[in-house]
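In this section we walk through a basic example: taking a raw amino acid sequence and producing a predicted 3D structure, encoded as discrete structure tokens. The instruction is simple. Fold the sequence below.
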Amino acid sequence: MKIILPAFLISVVLALSAKGQSHVIVGHDFDPFYYSDAGPGVQGACYDILKKLCDATEENCKFKIAPLRNMLRMLKEGEADIGCPLGPSPQRGRVYYYSEKVFDTRYSFFARPAVAKKIKDYDSLSQLKVGVFSPSMTEVSLQQVHEYMDKKFKIYPEKTVVNTLRKVENNSYDLAYANADVAKTWIKKNRSKLVEVTGLGEPTEYSIVFSRKKFSPAEFQKFQTKLRELQHSHALDEIAAKHNLKISLNDEPEEARNSRGSRRTPATKNP
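The resulting token sequence is shown next.
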């Protein structure tokens, strides 16, 4: 019995651990993709999708929120396993596994109505002050416009999208360059009078990322498969509709979409 009992206990522990691993999921404050309210805690489209993925793979998942810079560090160093949302970047691709593109979204300019109506094209940005969340891929996109325009407008980096929008409201900046879905959500919730500048900006897509320190290629593929199954069941479309977002993932294989080239467009005067 002294030999059998320890063996039995070990088998129970192994069975329980095999049922589901524990994962730390982190996102940055980016409403409606991922955010935290005092009452309900972490919410957003990324949360809803990852909660379903964790349930589908029988994984135990703990959700955290952190500034973007900390989020990236946690994923790089293995302090967190999964992150969302994150835009495409060759440098980031060497550190994280990227899921198929999940969200269709865009970068856009926002301004007070009196300023917005004066902007007809990129030339109209000359001599204006433009705030942007930094460091971020939004900033990288704006830098491309800045170079194209021979640096004729000024860029002001901010630690959050909200700071950028508020400084446009109080007339510190002429424009904010931000993720359109995040800016529109903030404008609606805060009854702001800021408006989107039409005709300018750039489309982009966001993915779910997985730490290469915590996932093997096979383990990452397991989540990829479950993500695709969620799309086939229309669960992703339901989540996107709930948060007024658009899903990028569709029934066409990603290889076929990639063969046509990226949907991201270079900054031009008349995109």
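Looking at the output, two observations stand out. The mean pLDDT is 87. The radius of gyration is 21 Å. In the next section we compare this with other chains.
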